[in-house]
Amino acid sequence: MKVCIATGILSGAFIALAAHAAMADPIEMTDQAGREVRLEGAAERVASIPMPMASTLIAIDGGVEKQVGMNPVAKQAVLEGILGKIYPEAVNIPSDITAPNFIPNVEELAATNPDLVVQWADRGDDLVDPITNAGLTAMLISYGTEEKTREYMTMSAKAMGREDRIGPLIEWREDVASDVAGKASAIADAEKPKVLYLQRAMETLIASGARNNYNTWYIELTGGTSASADLEANGVTINPEQIAEWNPDVILLNNFESDISPERIYDDPILSLTNAAQNHKVYRMPLGGYRWDPPNTESPLTWMWLADLLHPDVFDYDLRAEMKKAYKTIYDYDLTEEDIDNILWIDLNDGAANYDQFKSKS
Amino acid sequence: MSMTEAGARLHGGAGALRAGLFGAMLAALAAAFIFSIGAGRFSVSPGRIAEIILQWIANPSAPLDSIDQRIVLLVRMPRVLIAAVSGAALAVGGAALQGVFRNPLVSPQVLGISQGAAFGGALAILLGYAGVTLLGLAFIFGLAALVLVGLLARINGRTEIVTVILSGMVIGALFAALVSIVQFLADPNTSLPAIVYWLMGSFSTATWARFWLGLPGLAIGLLAVWLFRYRLNLLALEDTEARSLGVDPDRERWYIFVATALMTATSVAVAGIIGWIGLVVPHAARILVGEDHRVLIPASAILGAAYLTFVDTLARTLTAAEIPLGVLTALIGAPVFGILLRRHFSKANQP
C-alpha cells in the first residue's frame, strides 16, 4: 500500500516536472553585475527593490499582475501618479519587502515567494547577499545611461517571458533618439542653449552635474549644452551665485520635489535675473508613469518634449499624439486630454516660452 | 619704586597688551568680512563691490536691478552676517559651558541640544517642510532636549554637574537615534540627500529673511552670556566657595544652559550642525587672553565670528559644488585643536 502511494506520488511528481519542463525552458542571462542568472522558466512573480524598476517592470509586462513586491516609495509614486489610475489593483501589491533604503527585508521578501528579485548592481553585496542566501534568484541592474537602460529593460523582458514586448520599446527608443540626433546635428554650436537641470531647488539647490550623466546626455541629444557639465560629481549642492555665473538659458525643474513650480525661480532675487527666467524658459519636467527626468520606459517622450522646447523651429513633434500612441502601446491605456494636461503640467508651466505648443488643440 | 607701583605698571602693560590683542582680533574680523564679501563664484570686481555698498548705504531703498548688486547685497551680505553671528554664538556657547563645567573639552553637543535640533530639522525635511517650519521644529526639539536633560538631571531637587553631563549624553544619544530613524525612513531619491547635506551644516540657504529669523535667538543668547561673564568666573569656583560669595550655582548654571540652548538650536536651525567651533575657538581665545571670562567671552565672540565667516567663504568658493561646512570646520578644527591641546599641556606641565 505504502509502496503504491509512494510510486503514485513519485510518478505524479515526475509527470508534473516533465509537464513543467515542456512548458517552460530555463532562462539564462548575465546581469549588469556580470553574474549568471538562471530561471527555470519565465518569472511569474517578480519583486523589485530599486524604485525606478517598479514602473519599468509594469510597463514591460503591460500590467501589475506579476508584481509581488516593490519599494514603498515606488508604490507611493505608482498610487499617486497615473499608473495608479491605469492599474487600480496596484494598491494590493506588498511594499514591505524593503525599506526605502533598498536593504531587503528577507522574511517579507521570501513570504511573497518571488521567482525573481530585482536589485541594484552597484550598491554593494550587503543589498544582494540576503536575497541569494535565502535561496531566491536575484537579477542586478545598474542605472544612469541610455545603454544601461536598454540593457536592463531587455533583461527584465526576457526574465518575465515578454520578449514580444521589448522589441518595439527598444526600437522606439532607437528611432526617436536617432531622429532627434539627426535633426539636432544641423544646429550650430552657437545656437545651442545652456540648459540647467535642477535635481532639487526648493530648499537647497542641487544640480545634476558630471559630463556623462543621463540628464546631460539628453540635453545634448536635443541640441542643448549642459550648464553644470563642469561639476565633477552628480547631485551636488550649489549656490545661487554659481547659477548666476553659469547664467543658463533654460532651467528644468525636477519631479522629486512634489510642490515645486517655476515660480520658485521667478520669485528668487538672483535666479529671476538669469536668461532662463528673463525669457520665461523655466519648465517643470513632466511626470507620467514615472518621472520623466531620469531614464524610464517613457524616455523618448522626454526627448521629444525637450527637443520641441529648445528648438521649436527645428523639431515639430506632436507630443500629445505621441503620448497617446506610447501609452496605448506601453500600458494599453487611452490617455484623456486631462491626463495629458496633468502629465505635462500644462497649468504649472502655463505662460512659459514655447509651452503653448503642448496645449490641447481641441 | 614700591611694590604697588610696579604692580600698577605691570597691570597697565597687560591692559595695553590686551587692548592690542582685541584690536588685532577686530582687524581679523574686518579682514574676514572684506574677504568674504569680495569672494564668490560670480565675479564682481572689488571696485564695483565698494561702489555697490556705498550706493546702498547712501540709498538703502533703491531698487536692485543688476545681478551683481543683488549677489553682493542679497546673497553675500546676509550669508556673511549669519555666518559671523552664528560663529560668535557657537564660540561663546562653548566658552560659557566650558566655564560652567570647569572643563575645556565641553561643547554644546554635550547637552544634547545639537542632536535635538538636528532631529527637528531632519523631521521637517522628511515631512517636506522648509524655511520657517524647519527653523521652528529644529528650535523646539533643541529646547526639548535641554528640558529633558534638566528633568533627568534633577534628583532630589538638586542638579549635580556630573548628572547634567550624563543626562546630556543620554538625551543626545536618544535624539541621535531618532535622527537615524528619520534617515532610515527618508526616500533616498528625494529627502535623504537633503537631510544628509543639512546635517553636515551649510549656510547655502542664507537670505535676509533667514538672518532676521535667526538673529533674535543668537543675539539674546550672546547678550545673556555676556551679562553673565562675571558670574561665570564665580561658577568656575567650587560650589561651596561660589555659595559663600552669594551665588546660587544651580540656578545660574541653568541660565547659562538656556542661553546656550537658544544659541545652539538657532544656529542648527539656520545652518545645520556645525561642529568644532565651540571647542576650538574658546581654546584659542583662552591662549590669547587668559581664563578671565570678562575678556574671554568677547574674545571668543570676535574670533568665532571671524573664523566661521572665513571658513564659510572657503566652503562656497573653493569649488562649484558647495562643500558642507561641518566637514571643513572638522577638517580644520581637529588638527588645530590637537596642536593647541599639546601646546597648552606642555606649557602647563613645565617644571
From TrEMBL, chain A:
Residues 1-24 form the signal peptide. The keyword Nucleotide-binding does not apply. Residues 45-314 form the Fe/B12 periplasmic-binding domain. It comes from the Bacteria. SUPFAM superfamilies: Helical backbone' metal receptor. One of its GO terms (biological process) is cellular response to iron ion. Keywords: Signal. Pfam families: Peripla_BP_2 (PF01497). This is Corrinoid ABC transporter substrate-binding protein. It comes from Martelella mediterranea DSM 17316.
Automatic annotation (TrEMBL), chain B:
It is a multi-pass membrane protein. InterPro entries: ABC_BtuC-like, ABC_transptr_permease_BtuC. It is found in: Cell membrane. One of its GO terms (biological process) is siderophore-iron import into cell. GO terms for cellular component: plasma membrane. The chain crosses the membrane at residues 20-39, 80-101, 134-155, 161-186, 207-228, 254-281, 293-311, 323-341. Keywords: Cell membrane, Membrane, Transmembrane, Transmembrane helix, Transport. Pfam families: FecCD. One of its GO terms (molecular function) is transmembrane transporter activity. Belongs to the binding-protein-dependent transport system permease family. FecCD subfamily. This is Putative ABC transporter permease protein. It comes from Martelella mediterranea DSM 17316.
